[in-house]
Fold:
Amino acid sequence: MTKDPSDIEIRAKNASQDVVSRSIRVMFAEVPILGGVLLATAGFVAGWLLRYQFIEPTAIGILCDEGGIDAPSWCDLRTSLIVTVQTLPGRVFVPVLAVLPWLVGNRTIARGLGLAALFFAGAGLILYNAGLAVVGVVVAGLRLIRLGKEPPQP
Structure:
């Protein structure tokens, strides 16, 4: 009995989708620190792109700082980002977000907060707040490791 080629293609597609969904479940639910490391890396890359492609290029700085009224509208966004990152709200955001998973009783919410904290901590490592971002990485990472080791809730 020969198998229909479309049946084989459907099975192969379903198998590949199963592998992807299993990988995502392992990274973000069963062993959340793996997903956290991935998100921290993504945050670091996003922070690098923001810093070196949008904030620090000399041409953009001159355009925004000396443009005055003729400056592009996105210069306000750039200035707001710089001020936010370098003032108190931007400095304490990551550590506060990293502590929240320890205060939440629901594991799903705690895992989501921990993953978000690691993403923003990764960005903070490159966006002028490395000291407090490291605190965020450690605190959120420890919580995610602990969540991965706790028995499932009934």
